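Entry 14. Ran structure prediction on the chain below.
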Amino acid sequence: RVGALMVIPSLTRQLLARSFRQTVIGALLSACISVIGGLLISYFFDVASGGSIVLLAIALFLGASAVRRG
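Output, structure tokens:
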């Protein structure tokens, strides 16, 4: 799960960024959104926090992939 949190935000931002700086800043924001959102989902739905964080990161990746294609 820790590996996924390191890789998925970076991959998500690489789909949309035009420079290395945009990739780094966007990956940081994507990771923060995934962590905070995943913890909120975990709290309100009483599910495991690690899994909800990773699933939210994957959802962001799929959303970015759809935006890039469309």
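The helical segments are 2-16, 20-45, 49-69. Will compare against last week's run tomorrow.
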